[in-house]
Structures are given as C-alpha cells and as structure tokens.
Design goal:
The complex is a heterodimer of chains A (about 425) and B (about 250). By secondary structure, chain A is mostly helical. Chain A has 18 helices and four strands. In chain A, the strands form two sheets. Chain A has a two-stranded antiparallel ribbon. The longest helix of chain A is centred in the middle third of the chain and has 27 residues. Chain B is an alpha/beta fold and about 250 residues long. In chain B, strands 6-7-8-3-9-10 form a six-stranded mixed β-sheet, sandwiched between helices. The N and C termini of chain B lie far apart (about 40 Å). Classes of the chains: A mainly alpha (about 425), B alpha/beta (about 250). At the A-B interface, helix 12, helix 13 and helix 14 of A face helix 2, helix 3, helix 4 and helix 5 of B.
Chain lengths: ~425, ~250
C-alpha cells in the first residue's frame, strides 16, 4: 500500500513536471528573424519545482488528508443531514428562483456599464445552453454544431435589418423560426445516426454554415461581416442619441431625462433577462409534457420507446427543432447587442463552450446549466491577466469535474409526476 | 385476427425462420415454443416490425403489415414485451405508463404550453388509466419509485402494464416468466388469463416454462431450427413424438 502510494505520488509529480516545464519554463524569443529557445527566469523554474514537490507530498499523504477533511465538523454535519421532502424543497426552490429573478431585474441600475454588458452575454449563453440542454441532456443527441443555429438567428436579423428594414421585435420570431427550420432540415438526414456519428455530422453542419457565411460575400459581406444592426426599441422609442427610424421617438426625450448610453445597455440586459426566463420556463414546461417524456424515453431505451408507438422521427426532430429555435432566439439578441456580426463569432469553439456548459452543469439539469453558464462566461473575464492560460485552466477544470463530479455541478433531478393515492 | 403466412427471415446465408405460419383468433392465447435458437424471437421481431421479413405475409385484422415500421404496428394495437426487460430505468413507474400513452395524449405543443382544458383532461385520464393498471398488477405502492430500482418480477409486471395502457388488441409476450420464482409465475399465469378473459386481448406467448404454457395456452405452435414442427392443442403437443424428439433428442 505504502509502496503503491509512493509510486503514484512519484508519477503524479513527474507528470506535473512534464506538463508545466515546457509551458512555463521555456520561452521562445525572436531575435531578428530567428527564434531562439531560452530558459525562463530562475524564479519560475523554482516555482515549478516547488509545485512538483507539493504535488508529490499531497499525493503521498492524500488519503490521510482526505480523512482529516472529512472529519471537519461542518462537512460531517452536512453529510448526515436528512434530505428534505421533495415538495418542500420544490417550494423553497421556486421562491429562491423568483427572488433571484426579481433581484436580477433591479441589479443593473446599481452597477457599472461593463458589468451589465457582461451579464447580457451571460444571459445569451444561458439561453443557448438551455436550448442545447434539450438536445443533449434530455434527448441524448450529441450535437457539436449547435452554433450554426445561433449563427442563423444572428444573420437572419442582420440581413433582414439591412435589406428589409426589420426591427428587432419583428426579426426575433423570424430568426428563431428560421433557426428552427434549419434544425428540422438538419434533423432529417441524421435521424438514423447516434452518438459519435451524429456528433461528426452535426460538427460538419456547423462548419458548413460558417464557411457559407464566410464565402457568400455578395449577401453576407463575408469575413467583413454585417454592421449597423439596429438596437431594440421600446414601443417605438429608440435608445440612441439621435432618432434613426422614421416615426420613432427617442427614449430620453419622451421621458424628459438626460441622454445616457447606459439606458440602451440596461434595456438590452432586461430584454435578454426576460427572454432567458421565458426560455427556461417554456423548456421546463416541455419537460413535464408528453413530448419531454418522449425525449427521455427515447434516450433511455430507443427500442422500447418504438415498441410503444413512439415515432423516432417525430421525437428526435422535435428535440432538434426546439433546441434550434432557442439558439435562433439568442442569436438575434446577440446580433442586436453587438451591432456587428461576422462569421468569426460562430466558430466551433462556441459550440464546444456551450456543450461544456451543459456537461459542467449536469446534463438535463436546468439550474445546473444556468450556474455553469454564469461560471464559464464570467470566470475568463475575471481572470483576464491569465488570458494566455485560459484554455489551460478551462481544460483543467473539465478534467477535475470529470474526476470529482462526473454528473455535473447540479445533476439533473427529474421533475417527477407524482401519483397520489386515493383513499 | 392475426395471420402469419409462410414467414421467412434470412440473415445472409442463415435462414433463421423458414415458412412459419400461425394464426391467432380473438380472445385466444397462442404459444410459440421450441428449443433455444429455434427462431421464436425472430418470428416475434418480424411480427412487431423490428425486422423486415424476407418472405411471407403477416395480416393483422385483415391488413398486411409486414415491413411496416415498428411504431406503426404498435399503434395498430399489436404491442410486445421483451425477453430482457426494457423499461425506462431513470423514470418512475407511473411515468413509464405515461410514456406508453403518448398517442392517447394531446401532443399538441401549444396546447400543452398553455395547459388548455382539453390537455388537462387527457393528462388526467392517462394518470387514471396508469393508476388502474398499477393497481391491477399490484405496483400501486411503488408508483413513484424509479423503475430501475424495482425487483425483477415487479419489472416484468410493469412491462406488461405498460403494454396494456396502450389498449392493445394483441399482446406479444417474449418469455414473460424468465427469471421468476414459482409463486411469481403463478401470479403471471393468472394475470395473462385475466387479460384474455376480462380485457378481450389476444396473447401470443413465447415461453420455456412448460407448466405455464400447457396451463394457459389455447393452442401451441412448435418451431425447431426455424421450421414449423407441430401445432395444435396442448394435449396434442404433449403427446407428439416429433416434439418430444426435438426437446429430448433421439433415444
């Protein structure tokens, strides 16, 4: 046992050294036209070796340490607590959620513009992740090209605004429905595929959309993107300093307040908040409906589901379509927030991030997915100084999650339908 | 109501089922027996649409159904169970029954989102039907448990209840007694007979438990190596020399 520990600790330390030394301990320096490899400062090298020793010692005494940690009073108290009754917990949960939403409504008026902007982005990711959660978490279809539907929504709004003078509110349903249509169209050929094969085909579809947007320069402007996308209006009131649309008034004039750029940011945030809450509620409702049960049944056992008269085609297509619908939704909001979109916003990495959010949050779990969306979007912003190591940290977080909580932050607790006994 | 004529199923060079014919009348229990690997389950898979038979006809209530997709056949009223229980394990017992009533429910998305009266009415009805069948198979106390946590015998009964809530005309049971103890087998025996007597369902049964088969079958079809060997009433089969040979080997 002890010898095993030493060996394990030794290998862990060795791996730490192998990974960290080339990344942190070596520098590439440009001298004229040639690039030379130089060692890092002595302090960095010392830091690396300290880290290696720490890993070695920790691994050596890990079991004893973990036992100690488990004995800590506040942890053991939690472990022995009785789980709350299901309906009591549901009630508390719904109150907490309502409270958070109300808080979120007033919060932007007290914080900086940058924070509100970031929060809007978080809400967009929440919508995306909730939509993907339907496809991946509930229906069990691994979709790696989800960003394509997001792009469809965003480009629909941008193009309609440019060529047909659509406003945000007109484009929102159109963008979402068009994305849903794309989901339906993609769904047909991939119905027979499962698991890895499905993932590859959807990945390809995502790339097709991006490359199409990139190369169809006459329509989409190619890599230059589309700019001048209008901001949303509130009953015909614009938030810009000067009114652009015909027949519109400006927000600050109507209410007789001084113009401030913050109004627009806060308004966008509120729109995103309302849409995100709408998304969450609709999907939550779907989960309790026959269609939600059908998604889960098909994920659990396709053959049994079919033997009971569930059409694989209809069930899978509905999941794809509804997932795509909400991606189109968030795409429209995104286009309006940025005011400018280009294919660069819709690369594969975006799909991967949204998928990571779903997996981190816990497949099928709405609250988990929302928490993960907040974490994944905000953490990189907070850790701007370490931006070079962003992907490294991201990867490490994923690995740690898989080791300690493979079921995600908040694993899915199914919304049960209870059968009450009649006496 | 069901007629299988000269059914054949070929997998490449292997002729798994060769010219098998059988028929089932209203309110009748027909068994298919035969040694392991005789092709019984393959016949089932052809009948329920999991396989597309390579030859022959299957008529259900006068209509040809061979080669139709499985979910359409089940919607016509031919529902099956599986040799290895196939439940939706992470769903509760009652939810398993609700999934099965998918086509009785209002599946209109908008109606569901708005909770229209019609939608609520149907949802309530399907819960009632689920409650009825859970009481019928004695699982009502376990209604809110995850079905994966049930004991094996209970899972078997749940699978039958799940078929019954779809209101089938013909029930196909693939080795329903496998893995059950004698007491459970006896309960199953009574349940199957009652399905026929009280709910007017015809049953096609694949089974190895001879006491069960002989007890409840109206007629028995014996298959050996994919070919029909004999068919008739239980006592005829019991005394059939060919059948005895196939089961026990030649003396």
């Amino acid at each position: 046992m002890a010898a095993n520990n030493v060996r394990h600790a030794f290998f862990s330390a060795l791996i730490t050294l192998i990974i960290s030394y080339p990344i942190l301990g070596l520098n590439l320096e440009a001298q004229g036209i040639s690039v030379t490899l130089t060692g890092a400062d002595t302090s960095t090298v010392i830091a690396i070796f300290i880290a290696v020793i720490v890993v070695f010692v920790f691994q050596l005494f890990r079991e004893r340490l973990m036992d100690r940690v488990r004995e800590l009073p506040f942890l053991s108290a939690r472990a022995h607590k009785e789980p709350m009754a299901e309906n009591k917990r549901a009630k508390i949960e719904s109150w907490v959620i309502t409270g958070i939403v109300v808080l979120a409504l007033f919060w932007p008026f007290f914080v900086s513009r940058g924070a509100v902007d970031l929060a809007t982005l978080v809400l967009i990711y929440i919508m995306l992740a909730l939509g993907l959660n339907v496809v991946v978490g509930l229906a069990g279809l691994l979709d790696l090209g989800y960003v394509a539907f997001y792009a469809v929504g965003a480009y629909t709004f941008a193009l309609l605004a440019q060529y047909a003078d659509f406003s945000f509110w007109m484009a929102l349903p159109v963008g979402a429905c068009l994305a849903a249509l794309f989901g339906l169209v993609l769904g047909f050929p991939v119905l027979r595929l499962r698991g890895d094969y499905l993932a590859i085909v959807t990945l390809g579809f995502g790339e097709i959309i991006r490359i199409l947007l990139n190369n169809w320069t006459t329509l989409t402007g190619g890599p230059n993107g589309i700019g001048g996308i209008p901001d949303p209006t509130l009953f015909g009131m614009e938030f810009g300093r000067r009114v652009k649309g015909e027949g519109n008034t400006s927000f600050h004039d109507t209410f007789g307040i001084a113009y401030s750029g913050e109004h627009k940011v806060i308004f966008l945030y509120l729109i995103a908040l309302v849409l995100a809450v709408f998304t969450a509620m609709v999907i939550r409702r779907f989960m309790r409906m026959p269609v939600g049960r059908a998604w889960e049944a098909l994920r659990e056992d396709e053959i049994a589901a079919r033997s009971l008269g569930l059409s694989r085609t209809a069930v899978k297509l509905s999941a794809f379509t509804i997932g795509a619908f909400f991606a189109g939704f968030s795409g429209t909001v995104f286009a309006s927030k940025q005011g400018f979109i280009s294919p660069e916003s819709f690369v594969f990495l975006e799909s991967a991030i949204v998928l990571a959010i779903v997996v981190l949050g816990g497949m099928g779990s709405q609250i988990g997915v929302i928490l993960a969306a907040i974490a994944v979007t905000i953490l990189p912003e907070l850790a701007r100084e370490f931006s070079e190591y962003r992907m490294l940290i991201f990867g490490a977080a994923m690995v740690l999650m898989m080791v300690w909580r493979p079921q995600g932050l908040m694993p899915m607790r199914r919304i049960h339908i209870e059968l009450n006994r009649q006496e | 109501m069901l007629e299988v004529q000269n059914l054949s199923m070929r997998f490449g060079g292997l002729l798994a089922v060769d010219q098998v014919s059988l028929d089932v009348q209203e309110r009748e229990i027909v068994s298919i027996i035969g040694p392991n690997g005789a092709g019984k389950t393959t016949v089932f898979n052809c009948m329920s649409g999991f396989y597309r038979p390579t030859g022959g006809k299957i008529l259900f209530q006068g209509k040809e159904i061979q080669g139709k997709p499985d979910y359409k056949i089940s919607r016509l009223g031919m529902v099956r169970t599986f040799q290895h229980v196939r439940l939706f394990n992470s769903m509760t017992v009652v939810e398993n029954l609700l999934v099965a009533q998918h086509r009785h429910l209002n599946t209109n998305l908008i109606a569901g989102l708005l909770k229209t009266p019609n939608y609520r009415e149907r949802e309530k009805k399907s819960l009632e039907r689920a409650r009825y069948w859970l009481e019928r198979v004695g699982l009502i106390d376990l209604a809110n448990r995850e079905s994966g946590n049930l004991a094996y015998g209970q899972q078997r009964r749940l699978e039958i209840a799940r078929c019954m809530v779809t209101e089938p005309r013909l029930l196909m049971l693939d080795e329903p007694a496998a893995g059950l103890n004698p007491a459970e087998t006896k309960d199953l025996n009574q349940l199957i007979v009652s399905l026929k007597e009280d709910y007017n369902v015809s049953v096609v049964l694949i089974e190895h438990d001879m006491s069960l088969v002989m007890d409840i079958s109206d007629r028995i079809n014996v298959i050996n190596q994919g070919r029909p060997l004999a068919s008739g009433k239980p006592e005829e089969i019991r005394n059939n020399d060919d059948v005895i040979k196939a089961y026990l080997g030649e003396a």
